[in-house]
Design goal:
single chain; 321 residues; alpha/beta; Rossmann fold; 8-stranded mixed β-sheet
């Protein structure tokens, strides 16, 4: 079987770096924060072996892909445009799109806006979030002692300074602390950042990495973010309100292509306010939802923590399309 290859493509006014493997129907894999194409290392080979062309880009702002300086170059509409342009660059009429973390909204909205190009969608960790009636940052939790992490990310430079002080420590702490191996956190402090402290103060850097993350894996992530910094990925968060403003015409819109949702039962995302209720009602917004897979003991890094289970779920979904 062929190995992973790499190339650059032009799409939507920028250049994206791709890792790809296999030949056949196209499956696009969109990573989240703070990751890269490498987070799909276990899926590329599995999809290729099953007869698919698996493509994992470094998303806009990450890795070897372009990192525009302007914050407003990272709206959800730019990101969906990148994926449509990616299909054009690959001369593919259609694809199934899979997204994890921030890549999940890209996947859901790609399927919502361009069902002619994306014939199926799989979201990992983050469910489809229908547009609400209120500006998102206005309802994020905060008090005298702490703010929700997405609010902490809004001020350019603040989170960058914390995370880039020691990139290896940052990634070791973030990847472990959000995994199913860490002590679960519950209650009102989930996702909260102490005012004047920084998010890493509530994370743990383990002496020994969990079995799903090797020192070589961590070294790859560290080398990438030591070179690029975190600004590109953080700029996605700085467009949360702008995405809401731009998506007014899509209030109430439903994702109408076949879909699958996969999440770990120890993922911090499902502890956020309203998410469990949203998951329970997901078929209302995604009428062709083929199922919700809940992975016991799995944290946020779904496809890395449970590659065998995630690969099986993806392949079963693809085979029934």
């Amino acid at each position: 079987m062929n190995e992973v290859t790499h190339r650059m493509v032009d799409t939507n006014g920028i250049r994206l770096h791709l890792a790809e493997q296999g030949a056949g129907p196209l499956v696009v894999l969109c990573h989240g924060f703070p990751e890269s194409w490498y987070s799909w290392r276990h899926q590329l080979a599995a999809l290729a072996a099953a007869g698919f062309h698996a493509v994992a880009p470094d998303m806009r702002g990450y890795g070897q892909s372009d990192r525009p300086q302007e914050i407003d170059s990272y709206t959800l509409f730019h990101l969906v445009g990148d994926m449509v342009g990616l299909l054009d660059a690959l001369r593919a009429e259609q694809a199934v799109i899979v997204g994890h973390d921030w890549g999940a909204p890209v996947a859901w909205w790609s399927a919502l806006l361009r069902p002619d190009r994306f014939r199926g969608v799989i979201g990992l960790s983050v469910p489809y979030l229908p547009r609400g009636s209120t500006r998102p940052t206005s309802i994020m939790p905060q008090d005298a002692d702490a703010v929700f992490y997405q609010l902490y990310f809004q001020a350019p430079g603040e989170a960058e300074a914390e995370y880039e002080r020691d990139v290896g420590h940052t990634l070791r702490s973030m990847l472990y602390s959000a995994s199913g191996d860490a002590q679960p956190r519950e209650g009102r402090d989930v996702g909260m950042v102490p005012r004047g402290g920084g998010w890493l103060t509530r994370m743990k850097s383990p002496a020994t990495l969990p079995s799903w993350l090797s020192e070589a894996d961590l070294a790859f992530y560290t080398s990438e973010f030591a070179r690029t910094g975190f600004r590109g990925g953080l700029n996605w968060y700085r467009n949360i309100d702008r995405n809401w403003e731009l998506s007014g015409a899509f209030a109430g819109a439903r994702v109408k292509v076949p879909a699958l949702y996969v999440v770990g039962d120890r993922d911090l995302v499902i502890s956020f306010r309203g998410i469990k209720e949203l998951i329970a009602n997901l078929p209302t917004f995604v009428p062709e939802l083929r199922g919700t897979v809940m992975l016991k003991g799995c944290g946020h890094w779904t496809q890395q923590e449970r590659p065998t289970d995630v690969n099986a779920a993806i392949l079963e979904f693809l085979q029934h399309l």
